[in-house]
Design a protein that fits this description.
By secondary structure, this protein is an alpha/beta fold. The chain has helices spanning 17-25, 45-62, 76-88, 102-110, 229-234, 244-259, 263-282, 312-321, 346-363, and strands at residues 6-7, 68-73, 94-99, 116-122, 146-149, 151-152, 157-158, 172-175, 192-196, 207-212, 288-289, 301-306, 324-325, 336-339. The strands form 4 sheets. Strands 2-10-9-8-5-3-4 form a 7-stranded mixed β-sheet. The structure holds 4'-deoxy-4'-aminopyridoxal-5'-phosphate. One of its GO terms (molecular function) is O-phospho-L-serine:2-oxoglutarate aminotransferase activity.
Length: 364
C-alpha cells in the first residue's frame, strides 16, 4: 500500500483505496456466502442483492426519477454508439450530433449505419478546445435526438450546462463516461445518459445506461438482442450473464460516494482539485499551457503542454520517478494529460502541482 502511486491515467483509472480494501476483505468469502462475488450465480439471491443495492444507491446519488430505467450492460460506451440509433431511430430518421472532441466524433461515425446523422457543430478546426453558444446551433427540428459527449476525455472539454434540444422529440443524449458521478446532474433533462465505468465508478466491463422508459421498445428489426434496451430492461440487466464483478465494485463506489455526502460534496472536492491544477498552469507565465477555453475546461481530464516541448519526455519521466504516473497525453494530441477523477485525492494534485513548480524552477 505504501508503494501505491498517484495514477493520473484516463481509464482504466484509480479507484478509491477504501473500496479496493473492502473488496479485498470480501474477496474470498462475500459476507458469509462462502464464495467470491466472482464465483456466484448471477441469478442467486446474493448477487441479486448486490445489483439491486447498486441500482438503488445510484438512483439516490443522481436523483434518478422513477420513469427512468437503469441498465448495467457490457460492450463499453462504444457499443452504445450503435445501440442508441438502433433503439431510437428508423433507418431514415435524421439525428443531430454536436462534436466537441474525439469521442463525440466516434459516436457520430458509428451512427450512419443505423440512421441519418448530421454534425451540427464541430470543434475540430479549433482542435477541440471549445463548446459553441447553444443558441447558435442549427438544430434539425425533425431530428430524433441531439447527442453530446458531456466530457471529452482526450481534449479536456466539459459541458457546464446543456443545450435544449429543439428537435421534434426533445431528446438530449449524453455520453458521460468520463464525468459520470463527478457532480450532480438533472437526469430529467436527458433521454439517455450512458457511461463506461472504468474512469469514475469501477473497473472496465460494465456500462451504465440511464434511459427514459418511454424510449424503450422501438428498436429496429435488425437490432442484436444484446443491444436491445427492452430485453435488458425487462430482465433487470440479467438477460444473460452480466459483468458481476464490475457491478459489485460500482456498488461499493456508490456507497462510498454517498458516505462522502453525495455528489454535491464530491463536486466541491473536484472543483478544488481542478482549480489547483489549472491555476498552476495559468500562473506559470506560459511555461505550461492548457489550450482549452477557460469556461469549458474539464474537471476530470486536464490536458497541458510545455512551452519547451522538448522537455515533455523529461517531465513525464521525472514525475514517474516521484510516483506520479500515466501523465502522457493521448497520442492524438501529445503533451501531458492529468486525469483527476473522483478517486484522485487532493494530495495527488498537490504533489503534482509542487512537482510542476519545481520542474519549472529548474528548467525556466
Ligand atoms: N466515451 C468517452 C467519453 C470515453 O472516454 C471513452 C473511453 N475512453 C469511450 C466513450 C469509449 O468507452 P469504452 O472503452 O468503454 O467503449
Amino acid at each position: 500500500e505504501a508503494d501505491r502511486v498517484f495514477n493520473f491515467a484516463a481509464g482504466p483509472a484509480n479507484l478509491p483505496l477504501n473500496v479496493l480494501k473492502k473488496s479485498q476483505s470480501e474477496l474470498v468469502n462475500w459476507r458469509g456466502s462462502g464464495m467470491s462475488v466472482m464465483e456466484m450465480s448471477h441469478r442467486g439471491k446474493e448477487f441479486k442483492s448486490i445489483i439491486e443495492k447498486a441500482e438503488a444507491d445510484l438512483r439516490t446519488l443522481l436523483g434518478i426519477p422513477e420513469n427512468y430505467a437503469v441498465l448495467f450492460l457490457q460492450g463499453g460506451a462504444t457499443t452504445q454508439f450503435a445501440a442508441i440509433p438502433l433503439n431510437l431511430c428508423k433507418p431514415d430518421d435524421p439525428v443531430d450530433y454536436l462534436v466537441t472532441g474525439s469521442w463525440g466524433d466516434k459516436a457520430f461515425k458509428e451512427a450512419p449505419k443505423y440512421c441519418k446523422p448530421k454534425v451540427i457543430w464541430s470543434g475540430k478546426s479549433e482542435k477541440y478546445t471549445n463548446i459553441p453558444a447553444f443558441d447558435t446551433l442549427n438544430q434539425n427540428p425533425d431530428a430524433k435526438y441531439l447527442h453530446i459527449c458531456a466530457n471529452e476525455t482526450i481534449h479536456g472539454v466539459e459541458f457546464k450546462d446543456y443545450p435544449t434540444p429543439r428537435n421534434a422529440t426533445g431528446i438530449l443524449i449524453a455520453d458521460m463516461s468520463s464525468n459520470f458521478c463527478s457532480k450532480p446532474v438533472d437526469v430529467s433533462k436527458f433521454g439517455i445518459i450512458y457511461a463506461g465505468a472504468q474512469k469514475n465508478i469501477a473497473p472496465s466491463g460494465v456500462t451504465v445506461v440511464i434511459i427514459r422508459k418511454d424510449l424503450i421498445g422501438n428498436a429496429q428489426e435488425i437490432t442484436p438482442v444484446m443491444l436491445e434496451y427492452k430485453i435488458h430492461a425487462d430482465n433487470n440487466s440479467l438477460y444473460n450473464t452480466p459483468p458481476c464483478w464490475p457491478i459489485y465494485i460500482s456498488g461499493l463506489v456508490f456507497e462510498d460516494l454517498l458516505e462522502q455526502g453525495g455528489l454535491a460534496e464530491v463536486e466541491k472536492k473536484n472543483k478544488r482539485k481542478g482549480e489547483l491544477l489549472y491555476n498552476a498552469i495559468d500562473e506559470s507565465k506560459g511555461f505550461y499551457r492548457c489550450p482549452v477555453e477557460k469556461s469549458v475546461r474539464s474537471l476530470m481530464n486536464v490536458p497541458f503542454t510545455l512551452e519547451k516541448s522538448d522537455l515533455e519526455a523529461e517531465f513525464i519521466k521525472e514525475a514517474a520517478k516521484e510516483k506520479m504516473v500515466q501523465l502522457k497525453g493521448h497520442r492524438s494530441v501529445g503533451g501531458m494529460r492529468a486525469s483527476i477523477y473522483n478517486a484522485m485525492p487532493l494530495a495527488g494534485v498537490e504533489k503534482l502541482v509542487a512537482f510542476m513548480k519545481d520542474f519549472q524552477a529548474r528548467h525556466a
